[in-house]
Amino acid sequence: MKKIYILSTLFLLLISCNSGEKISSDEYLVINKAIGHILQPYGTTFTDTEELNEIAREYNIDITRISQEDSKKINEIISSRRGYEFAVVDTLAETDTKSGKYTFDLKIDSLIPSVEKLPKAVMNSEMLRFPENYTRVKTVNNPENFLGKIKLERVIFNDAKDKAMIFYTKCKKMNNKECSFNTISLIKEHNEWYIRH
To answer: How many CA atoms lie within 13 A of 146 on its CB side?
Structure first.
């Protein structure tokens, strides 16, 4: 009986020590949506007229009237041809919503955080989903098509868990050079996360 009590106590102690470090399934959904958004070239996919005309002929796209669906199709085709690469840091950085860094974005978004401070946490690679034709790398193989290195922070949710915000850094180079900092706001509707523009 004493052994069971000791094991139960150790188990509870381990759980309490890890409190807040575990990444929830909702947090992974937001992370995956954010990574997909960060990686999408959104109009910065470079092509020449010859390649665009070739794609239009092959896929029966009228380039004088390109719809949103056609544009998405063209981006997918180009990304599959380019073989885009990117890197993601495995550890989510700590988030402290009381620091001045978050105040402006939280206020603009009318997001009241459910938790003030979240400790850093290591992501489970098996839970991450990336856009098709994009390859996560540890070493850059093709500098021309390297989209950057992404460092994410813990996701900030509101109490209802229907609004979220994630801060990130994206560096053009693997050695953390030429970095920019940004925020992505998301909203949950019908059990699906969407980027707020």
So the answer is: 19
* Helix segments in 83-132, DSSP class H: 100-108
Q: Where are the beta strands (DSSP E) in 17-155?
A: 84-88, 91-92, 95-96, 117-118, 121-122, 134-136, 146-152
Extended beta strands in 77-133, E state? 84-88, 91-92, 95-96, 117-118, 121-122
Whole-number Å distance between alpha carbons of 188 and 197: 13
Q: Is 184 helix (H, G, I), strand (E, B) or coil?
A: strand
Residue type, 130: F
Q: What is the pTM of this model?
A: 0.78
Cα 95 to Cα 119: distance, rounded to the nearest angstrom: 7
For residue 113, CA distances in Å to 91, 166, 175 come to 21, 12, 32
* pLDDT, position 12: 38
* Strands of the chain, DSSP E: 84-88, 91-92, 95-96, 117-118, 121-122, 134-136, 146-152, 156-157, 163-171, 179-189, 192-195
Average pLDDT, the chain: 85
